[in-house]
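Structure request: Putative Lipoprotein-releasing system ATP-binding protein lolD, Deinococcus gobiensis.
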Amino acid sequence: MLGGVTLEVWPGEVVAVTGPSGSGKSTLLHLLGGLDTPQGGEVYWAGERCDQLGVQERASRRAGRIGLVFQHHYLLEDLTVLQNLLIPTQLSGRGGTERARELLARVGLLDRAGALPGVLSGGERQRVAVARALAAQPAAVLADEPTGSLDRAGAETVAGLLVSLAREQGAGVLLVTHDDRLAARADRTLHLLDGHLQGGGT
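Returned structure:
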C-alpha cells in the first residue's frame, strides 16, 4: 500500500526507485502507467489527469504516451521481432517501419528483424523489449526490473541502451530496480519503504 506519495518525472530525466520486496515499487509503477487506478490521489500524464479515465481510454492514451518494459519481455511469440515493434506504432499512430528498423539497428538486432522471439537469447529479447517501448516515441518509459532476469553483461547492455535511447528522444524514465548498477545511471534515486518515498520524493 502506498501512502502520501508525490512524484514527478520530467522529460529527459531518469529516476530510479529502489526498495525491498513488498515495499510498493511495482504498485507505484502500475499506478503511474494506468495499469491500475488509485483508491485515492491523482495521476497525470503530461498535465492531463488519467486515473479517472475508463479502461479502454486509459489504454488508448497509454499507447501514445507511455512505453513499458518489464522483467519478462512479453513479446508476442507468433510475430517477428519487427512486427512486435510495430504494435505500439500502429496503436499510437506514430513511428512506423522506418522508426522500428532504426531502433533495432541501435540495439544491435536489425539482422534479427524477421526472426521470431523464440530463437533469441534472453538478452536479445530484452533489447527488443526496450526498442518496442521506445518505438512510438513516448513521453515517458516505465521500467519494472528491466534487467532482473539477465546476467551481468546482458544487464549492462540493456541498461545502457534503455537510458541512452530514452534520453536521446527526451523521454522521462522511471526505473524500478534492485540493481545498484542500474540505479547509478539515474539522475535521481528514490527509496520506497513501507509505501513512502525517501530521497527526493514524498
